[in-house]
Amino acid sequence: MKIEKPRGTRDFLPDDIEKRREIERIMRKIAESYGYREVLTPTFEHLDLFTIKSGESIIEEIYAFKDKSGRDLALRPELTAPVMRLYVNECMGIPKPIRFYYFANCFRYERPQKGRYREFWQFGVELIGSSSYLADVEVIELAYRIMDELKLSFEMHVGHVGLLRHVLRDLSEDRANKIMRLIDKRDLDALDRYLDGDLRDKIHSLVDMVGKSDVLEDAKKIIPNFNFDHLERVCRALDDLEVDYKVNLGIARGLEYYTGVVFEAYAEGLGAQNQICGGGSYRLSHLFGGDDVPATGFALGFDRIAEICDLDSKKPVRVVVVSFRGLEVEALKIADAIRSKAVVVTDVMERSVKKQLSYANDISADYAVIVGEKELKEGKIAVKDLKTKEQRITSLEEFLETLG
Protein backbone atom coordinates (compact mmCIF):
# COMPACT_ATOMS: atom_id res chain seq x y z
CA MET A 1 0.00 0.00 0.00
CA LYS A 2 1.35 3.41 -0.99
CA ILE A 3 1.16 5.93 1.83
CA GLU A 4 1.04 9.61 0.88
CA LYS A 5 2.39 12.46 2.99
CA PRO A 6 -0.19 14.26 5.19
CA ARG A 7 -2.14 17.11 3.61
CA GLY A 8 -0.42 20.46 3.97
CA THR A 9 3.08 19.00 4.37
CA ARG A 10 5.97 18.65 1.91
CA ASP A 11 8.95 16.45 1.15
CA PHE A 12 12.18 18.27 0.36
CA LEU A 13 14.66 16.77 -2.09
CA PRO A 14 18.42 17.49 -1.90
CA ASP A 15 18.31 20.52 -4.26
CA ASP A 16 15.51 22.05 -2.19
CA ILE A 17 17.30 21.42 1.09
CA GLU A 18 20.60 22.83 -0.17
CA LYS A 19 18.86 26.05 -1.19
CA ARG A 20 16.97 26.30 2.11
CA ARG A 21 20.13 25.66 4.13
CA GLU A 22 21.95 28.45 2.28
CA ILE A 23 19.09 30.89 3.00
CA GLU A 24 19.10 29.76 6.63
CA ARG A 25 22.88 30.25 6.82
CA ILE A 26 22.59 33.86 5.63
CA MET A 27 19.77 34.59 8.09
CA ARG A 28 21.74 33.14 11.00
CA LYS A 29 24.91 34.98 10.06
CA ILE A 30 23.21 38.38 9.96
CA ALA A 31 21.24 37.83 13.19
CA GLU A 32 24.39 36.74 15.00
CA SER A 33 26.26 39.80 13.68
CA TYR A 34 23.73 41.93 15.64
CA GLY A 35 24.44 39.96 18.83
CA TYR A 36 21.45 37.58 18.73
CA ARG A 37 21.91 34.02 19.99
CA GLU A 38 19.85 30.97 19.09
CA VAL A 39 17.24 29.36 21.31
CA LEU A 40 15.06 26.31 20.69
CA THR A 41 11.75 25.48 22.36
CA PRO A 42 9.70 22.23 22.37
CA THR A 43 7.69 21.28 19.31
CA PHE A 44 4.59 21.01 21.52
CA GLU A 45 3.52 23.17 24.45
CA HIS A 46 0.68 23.31 26.95
CA LEU A 47 -2.45 24.50 25.13
CA ASP A 48 -2.90 27.34 27.65
CA LEU A 49 0.18 29.06 26.25
CA PHE A 50 -1.78 29.88 23.09
CA THR A 51 -5.33 30.27 24.44
CA ILE A 52 -4.50 32.52 27.41
CA LYS A 53 -4.51 35.61 25.20
CA SER A 54 -6.16 34.50 21.95
CA GLY A 55 -9.07 32.63 23.54
CA GLU A 56 -10.53 29.18 23.00
CA SER A 57 -11.42 29.96 19.38
CA ILE A 58 -7.79 29.48 18.37
CA ILE A 59 -8.14 25.74 19.05
CA GLU A 60 -9.95 25.43 15.71
CA GLU A 61 -6.85 26.79 13.93
CA ILE A 62 -4.13 24.68 15.56
CA TYR A 63 -3.18 21.07 16.23
CA ALA A 64 -4.48 20.58 19.79
CA PHE A 65 -4.65 17.18 21.49
CA LYS A 66 -4.65 15.35 24.81
CA ASP A 67 -1.71 13.17 25.77
CA LYS A 68 -2.08 9.79 27.46
CA SER A 69 -2.39 11.46 30.85
CA GLY A 70 -5.17 13.76 29.66
CA ARG A 71 -3.07 16.94 29.49
CA ASP A 72 -4.11 19.51 26.88
CA LEU A 73 -1.21 20.13 24.51
CA ALA A 74 -0.69 21.77 21.12
CA LEU A 75 1.88 21.77 18.36
CA ARG A 76 3.33 25.28 18.33
CA PRO A 77 1.52 27.52 15.78
CA GLU A 78 4.12 30.28 16.19
CA LEU A 79 7.26 30.95 18.22
CA THR A 80 6.89 34.27 20.03
CA ALA A 81 4.76 32.83 22.85
CA PRO A 82 7.09 29.80 23.36
CA VAL A 83 10.16 32.05 23.46
CA MET A 84 8.51 34.35 26.01
CA ARG A 85 7.51 31.28 28.05
CA LEU A 86 11.17 30.24 27.92
CA TYR A 87 12.15 33.74 29.08
CA VAL A 88 9.80 33.54 32.08
CA ASN A 89 10.98 30.03 33.01
CA GLU A 90 14.71 30.47 32.50
CA CYS A 91 15.89 34.00 31.76
CA MET A 92 14.22 36.73 33.82
CA GLY A 93 17.44 37.22 35.80
CA ILE A 94 19.63 37.67 32.72
CA PRO A 95 20.90 41.26 32.18
CA LYS A 96 18.78 43.14 29.68
CA PRO A 97 18.35 43.59 26.85
CA ILE A 98 18.25 39.93 25.81
CA ARG A 99 18.68 39.08 22.14
CA PHE A 100 17.33 35.70 20.97
CA TYR A 101 16.80 34.27 17.52
CA TYR A 102 15.15 31.02 16.42
CA PHE A 103 14.55 28.84 13.39
CA ALA A 104 12.01 26.04 13.67
CA ASN A 105 8.91 24.44 12.21
CA CYS A 106 5.38 25.43 13.26
CA PHE A 107 1.95 23.90 12.66
CA ARG A 108 -1.47 25.32 11.89
CA TYR A 109 -4.63 23.50 10.93
CA GLU A 110 -5.78 25.58 7.98
CA ARG A 111 -6.72 25.04 4.35
CA PRO A 112 -3.50 24.49 2.38
CA GLN A 113 -2.95 26.87 -0.53
CA LYS A 114 -0.07 28.50 -2.38
CA GLY A 115 2.35 29.85 0.22
CA ARG A 116 0.38 28.41 3.17
CA TYR A 117 1.06 24.97 4.63
CA ARG A 118 0.05 23.07 7.74
CA GLU A 119 3.71 22.58 8.58
CA PHE A 120 5.84 25.62 7.89
CA TRP A 121 9.09 27.20 9.07
CA GLN A 122 9.78 30.51 10.76
CA PHE A 123 12.98 32.43 11.34
CA GLY A 124 12.68 35.21 13.85
CA VAL A 125 14.18 37.29 16.65
CA GLU A 126 13.03 38.66 19.99
CA LEU A 127 14.70 41.66 21.66
CA ILE A 128 13.54 41.57 25.27
CA GLY A 129 13.80 44.32 27.86
CA SER A 130 13.67 47.69 26.07
CA SER A 131 10.79 50.03 25.30
CA SER A 132 13.08 52.55 23.59
CA TYR A 133 12.53 53.53 19.99
CA LEU A 134 16.06 52.20 19.41
CA ALA A 135 14.83 48.63 20.02
CA ASP A 136 12.21 49.04 17.29
CA VAL A 137 14.82 50.53 14.96
CA GLU A 138 17.27 47.67 15.52
CA VAL A 139 14.71 44.93 14.93
CA ILE A 140 13.26 46.58 11.81
CA GLU A 141 16.74 47.20 10.41
CA LEU A 142 17.77 43.61 11.11
CA ALA A 143 14.73 42.21 9.26
CA TYR A 144 15.41 44.61 6.38
CA ARG A 145 19.10 43.65 6.14
CA ILE A 146 18.26 39.94 5.99
CA MET A 147 15.74 40.38 3.17
CA ASP A 148 18.04 42.77 1.33
CA GLU A 149 20.99 40.36 1.60
CA LEU A 150 18.79 37.63 0.11
CA LYS A 151 18.14 40.00 -2.84
CA LEU A 152 14.38 39.80 -2.43
CA SER A 153 12.08 42.27 -4.17
CA PHE A 154 10.04 43.52 -1.22
CA GLU A 155 8.44 46.52 0.46
CA MET A 156 8.79 47.22 4.19
CA HIS A 157 5.78 48.91 5.82
CA VAL A 158 5.96 50.46 9.30
CA GLY A 159 3.05 51.56 11.45
CA HIS A 160 1.87 51.87 15.05
CA VAL A 161 -0.88 49.61 16.37
CA GLY A 162 -1.36 51.95 19.31
CA LEU A 163 -2.84 54.54 16.95
CA LEU A 164 -5.67 52.24 15.88
CA ARG A 165 -6.26 51.11 19.46
CA HIS A 166 -6.39 54.77 20.52
CA VAL A 167 -9.14 55.44 17.97
CA LEU A 168 -11.07 52.37 19.21
CA ARG A 169 -10.50 53.07 22.92
CA ASP A 170 -14.16 53.76 23.73
CA LEU A 171 -15.33 50.37 22.39
CA SER A 172 -15.43 47.14 24.36
CA GLU A 173 -12.27 45.06 24.21
CA ASP A 174 -14.01 42.26 22.30
CA ARG A 175 -15.42 44.64 19.69
CA ALA A 176 -12.11 46.50 19.33
CA ASN A 177 -10.24 43.22 18.87
CA LYS A 178 -12.74 42.08 16.24
CA ILE A 179 -12.27 45.33 14.33
CA MET A 180 -8.49 45.02 14.55
CA ARG A 181 -8.67 41.51 13.09
CA LEU A 182 -10.85 42.75 10.22
CA ILE A 183 -8.38 45.56 9.53
CA ASP A 184 -5.55 43.03 9.57
CA LYS A 185 -7.39 40.91 6.99
CA ARG A 186 -8.30 44.03 4.97
CA ASP A 187 -11.94 42.93 5.09
CA LEU A 188 -13.28 46.48 4.69
CA ASP A 189 -16.83 45.41 3.79
CA ALA A 190 -17.21 43.48 7.04
CA LEU A 191 -15.52 46.33 8.86
CA ASP A 192 -18.27 48.76 7.88
CA ARG A 193 -20.81 46.58 9.66
CA TYR A 194 -19.02 47.31 12.94
CA LEU A 195 -18.39 51.01 12.36
CA ASP A 196 -20.42 54.09 11.55
CA GLY A 197 -20.11 57.85 11.44
CA ASP A 198 -16.95 59.65 12.46
CA LEU A 199 -15.29 56.47 13.75
CA ARG A 200 -15.71 54.73 10.39
CA ASP A 201 -14.30 57.74 8.54
CA LYS A 202 -11.24 57.89 10.82
CA ILE A 203 -10.51 54.17 10.47
CA HIS A 204 -10.84 54.27 6.69
CA SER A 205 -8.58 57.32 6.51
CA LEU A 206 -5.90 55.60 8.58
CA VAL A 207 -6.12 52.32 6.69
CA ASP A 208 -5.62 54.18 3.40
CA MET A 209 -2.72 56.23 4.75
CA VAL A 210 0.42 54.73 3.15
CA GLY A 211 3.47 56.66 1.99
CA LYS A 212 6.64 58.40 3.11
CA SER A 213 7.08 59.61 6.69
CA ASP A 214 5.43 62.92 5.85
CA VAL A 215 2.03 61.15 5.95
CA LEU A 216 2.35 61.41 9.73
CA GLU A 217 1.52 65.12 9.41
CA ASP A 218 -1.80 64.18 7.80
CA ALA A 219 -2.43 61.60 10.54
CA LYS A 220 -1.90 64.24 13.23
CA LYS A 221 -4.72 66.29 11.75
CA ILE A 222 -7.09 63.30 11.91
CA ILE A 223 -5.99 62.09 15.39
CA PRO A 224 -4.57 65.23 17.06
CA ASN A 225 -4.58 63.81 20.60
CA PHE A 226 -2.28 60.84 19.88
CA ASN A 227 1.44 61.05 20.72
CA PHE A 228 3.37 60.41 17.50
CA ASP A 229 6.82 61.09 19.01
CA HIS A 230 7.94 57.45 19.26
CA LEU A 231 6.97 56.58 15.69
CA GLU A 232 8.54 59.78 14.36
CA ARG A 233 11.85 58.96 16.08
CA VAL A 234 11.77 55.46 14.59
CA CYS A 235 11.15 56.89 11.11
CA ARG A 236 13.95 59.45 11.38
CA ALA A 237 16.42 56.77 12.48
CA LEU A 238 15.39 54.42 9.67
CA ASP A 239 15.82 57.27 7.18
CA ASP A 240 19.34 57.92 8.50
CA LEU A 241 20.17 54.19 8.28
CA GLU A 242 18.96 54.14 4.64
CA VAL A 243 16.28 51.57 5.34
CA ASP A 244 13.75 51.78 2.52
CA TYR A 245 10.21 51.66 3.95
CA LYS A 246 6.73 53.14 3.80
CA VAL A 247 4.63 54.37 6.68
CA ASN A 248 1.43 52.32 6.77
CA LEU A 249 -0.97 53.33 9.53
CA GLY A 250 -3.39 50.53 8.64
CA ILE A 251 -1.14 47.72 9.91
CA ALA A 252 -3.10 45.99 12.67
CA ARG A 253 -1.32 42.61 13.09
CA GLY A 254 -3.61 39.68 13.89
CA LEU A 255 -2.18 38.90 17.33
CA GLU A 256 -3.58 41.03 20.12
CA TYR A 257 -0.44 41.35 22.24
CA TYR A 258 1.16 44.02 20.02
CA THR A 259 1.26 47.40 21.73
CA GLY A 260 3.31 49.88 19.68
CA VAL A 261 5.33 50.01 16.48
CA VAL A 262 4.45 47.21 14.06
CA PHE A 263 5.84 46.35 10.65
CA GLU A 264 5.30 43.99 7.74
CA ALA A 265 7.11 43.20 4.50
CA TYR A 266 5.47 42.19 1.25
CA ALA A 267 7.24 40.50 -1.65
CA GLU A 268 6.62 40.17 -5.36
CA GLY A 269 6.01 36.82 -6.99
CA LEU A 270 3.72 35.29 -4.36
CA GLY A 271 0.27 36.43 -5.43
CA ALA A 272 -2.24 37.16 -2.68
CA GLN A 273 -0.14 35.47 0.03
CA ASN A 274 2.67 38.02 -0.32
CA GLN A 275 3.54 38.83 3.29
CA ILE A 276 6.99 37.46 4.16
CA CYS A 277 7.70 39.25 7.43
CA GLY A 278 5.72 40.57 10.36
CA GLY A 279 6.61 41.94 13.75
CA GLY A 280 6.48 44.73 16.25
CA SER A 281 6.66 45.68 19.91
CA TYR A 282 4.58 43.83 22.49
CA ARG A 283 4.10 42.83 26.13
CA LEU A 284 3.40 39.17 26.70
CA SER A 285 5.50 37.63 29.48
CA HIS A 286 3.26 38.86 32.34
CA LEU A 287 0.50 36.61 30.98
CA PHE A 288 2.77 33.63 31.64
CA GLY A 289 3.64 34.58 35.21
CA GLY A 290 6.63 36.76 34.45
CA ASP A 291 7.43 40.45 34.77
CA ASP A 292 5.71 43.00 32.55
CA VAL A 293 8.70 43.37 30.25
CA PRO A 294 8.62 45.13 26.87
CA ALA A 295 9.84 43.24 23.83
CA THR A 296 10.16 43.67 20.09
CA GLY A 297 10.47 40.92 17.50
CA PHE A 298 9.67 39.64 14.06
CA ALA A 299 9.15 36.37 12.21
CA LEU A 300 10.11 35.71 8.61
CA GLY A 301 7.99 33.34 6.53
CA PHE A 302 10.82 31.03 5.56
CA ASP A 303 8.84 28.92 3.06
CA ARG A 304 7.61 31.91 1.08
CA ILE A 305 11.11 33.40 1.04
CA ALA A 306 12.56 30.11 -0.20
CA GLU A 307 9.99 30.08 -2.99
CA ILE A 308 11.07 33.45 -4.42
CA CYS A 309 14.72 33.64 -3.36
CA ASP A 310 17.14 33.13 -6.26
CA LEU A 311 20.57 32.74 -4.69
CA ASP A 312 23.64 32.86 -6.87
CA SER A 313 25.58 30.54 -4.59
CA LYS A 314 28.65 28.63 -5.67
CA LYS A 315 28.08 24.89 -5.64
CA PRO A 316 30.89 22.65 -4.37
CA VAL A 317 32.99 20.69 -6.82
CA ARG A 318 31.75 17.09 -7.14
CA VAL A 319 34.23 14.27 -7.78
CA VAL A 320 33.58 10.58 -8.38
CA VAL A 321 36.49 8.28 -7.60
CA VAL A 322 36.37 5.31 -9.99
CA SER A 323 38.30 2.13 -9.19
CA PHE A 324 39.22 -1.07 -10.96
CA ARG A 325 38.47 -4.38 -9.22
CA GLY A 326 40.79 -5.05 -6.32
CA LEU A 327 41.71 -1.39 -5.88
CA GLU A 328 38.61 -0.31 -3.97
CA VAL A 329 40.41 0.37 -0.67
CA GLU A 330 43.09 2.43 -2.44
CA ALA A 331 40.27 4.39 -4.05
CA LEU A 332 38.76 5.07 -0.63
CA LYS A 333 42.11 6.42 0.61
CA ILE A 334 42.35 8.78 -2.37
CA ALA A 335 38.73 9.86 -1.87
CA ASP A 336 39.50 10.75 1.76
CA ALA A 337 42.39 12.95 0.61
CA ILE A 338 40.21 14.81 -1.90
CA ARG A 339 37.34 15.46 0.53
CA SER A 340 39.14 18.44 2.04
CA LYS A 341 38.59 20.24 -1.28
CA ALA A 342 35.46 18.71 -2.81
CA VAL A 343 32.40 16.52 -2.44
CA VAL A 344 33.57 12.98 -3.23
CA VAL A 345 31.50 9.91 -4.11
CA THR A 346 32.88 6.39 -4.35
CA ASP A 347 31.40 3.20 -5.76
CA VAL A 348 29.67 0.99 -3.20
CA MET A 349 28.03 -1.42 -5.67
CA GLU A 350 31.15 -3.11 -7.11
CA ARG A 351 30.25 -1.97 -10.63
CA SER A 352 32.47 -1.95 -13.71
CA VAL A 353 34.57 1.11 -14.55
CA LYS A 354 32.24 1.89 -17.45
CA LYS A 355 29.17 1.87 -15.21
CA GLN A 356 30.96 3.96 -12.57
CA LEU A 357 31.76 6.60 -15.21
CA SER A 358 28.18 6.50 -16.44
CA TYR A 359 26.97 7.10 -12.87
CA ALA A 360 29.37 10.04 -12.55
CA ASN A 361 27.67 11.67 -15.54
CA ASP A 362 24.22 10.81 -14.17
CA ILE A 363 24.86 12.78 -10.98
CA SER A 364 26.47 15.73 -12.87
CA ALA A 365 29.88 15.30 -11.26
CA ASP A 366 32.64 17.67 -12.34
CA TYR A 367 35.51 15.16 -12.35
CA ALA A 368 36.08 11.44 -12.40
CA VAL A 369 39.31 10.33 -10.70
CA ILE A 370 40.22 6.89 -12.07
CA VAL A 371 42.36 4.66 -9.86
CA GLY A 372 44.21 2.12 -11.96
CA GLU A 373 47.05 -0.29 -11.14
CA LYS A 374 49.53 1.34 -13.54
CA GLU A 375 48.84 4.84 -12.23
CA LEU A 376 49.16 3.70 -8.60
CA LYS A 377 52.59 2.21 -9.25
CA GLU A 378 53.70 5.56 -10.71
CA GLY A 379 52.14 7.54 -7.85
CA LYS A 380 49.64 9.07 -10.27
CA ILE A 381 45.89 9.23 -10.90
CA ALA A 382 43.84 9.65 -14.07
CA VAL A 383 41.55 12.70 -13.96
CA LYS A 384 38.69 13.10 -16.44
CA ASP A 385 36.99 16.48 -16.73
CA LEU A 386 33.38 15.42 -17.25
CA LYS A 387 32.42 18.81 -18.73
CA THR A 388 35.14 18.99 -21.42
CA LYS A 389 35.68 15.19 -21.64
CA GLU A 390 39.45 15.77 -21.46
CA GLN A 391 41.52 13.23 -19.51
CA ARG A 392 45.02 13.61 -18.09
CA ILE A 393 47.47 11.77 -15.86
CA THR A 394 48.60 13.80 -12.87
CA SER A 395 49.63 13.49 -9.25
CA LEU A 396 47.08 13.67 -6.45
CA GLU A 397 48.85 16.77 -5.09
CA GLU A 398 48.60 18.60 -8.42
CA PHE A 399 44.93 17.71 -8.75
CA LEU A 400 44.22 19.03 -5.24
CA GLU A 401 45.93 22.31 -6.20
CA THR A 402 43.60 22.72 -9.18
CA LEU A 403 40.63 22.41 -6.82
CA GLY A 404 41.84 25.45 -4.86
How is the CATH topology of the largest domain named?
BirA Bifunctional Protein, domain 2
Q: Radius of gyration in whole Å, from Cα? A: 28 Å
Number of helices: 15
Count of discrete structural domains: 2
Q: What fraction of residues sit in β-strands?
A: 15-25%
Strand order of the largest sheet: 1-5-6-12-11-10-7-9-8
The major β-sheet equals: 9 strands, mixed
CATH superfamily of the largest domain: Bira Bifunctional Protein, Domain 2
User: Which word captures the global form?
Assistant: elongated
- How many E-type strands? 17
User: Low-confidence segments, ≥5 residues, pLDDT <50?
Assistant: none
> What's the helical proportion of residues?
25-40%
Q: N- to C-terminal separation?
A: 49 Å
CATH class of the largest domain: Alpha Beta
CATH architecture of the largest domain: 2-Layer Sandwich
Structural class by secondary-structure content: alpha+beta
Write down the overall mean pLDDT: 92
Characterize the structure shown.
- The protein has helices at 14-33, 48-54, 80-91, 133-149, 161-167, 173-184, 188-192, 197-207, 215-222, 229-240, 302-308, 328-338, 353-362, 373-377, 396-402, and strands at residues 37-38, 44-46, 64-66, 72-75, 98-107, 119-128, 154-160, 210-211, 246-248, 258-267, 275-283, 294-301, 318-323, 343-346, 367-371, 381-385, 391-394.
- It has 404 residues and is of the alpha+beta class.
- The protein has 15 helices and 17 strands.
- 37% of the residues lie in helices and 24% in strands.
- The chain folds into two domains: 14-308, Bira Bifunctional Protein, Domain 2 (BirA Bifunctional Protein, domain 2); 318-402, Anticodon-binding domain (Rossmann fold, 3-Layer(aba) Sandwich), CATH 3.40.50.800.
- The chain has a nine-stranded mixed β-sheet with strand order 1-5-6-12-11-10-7-9-8.
- The radius of gyration is 28 Å and the shape is elongated.
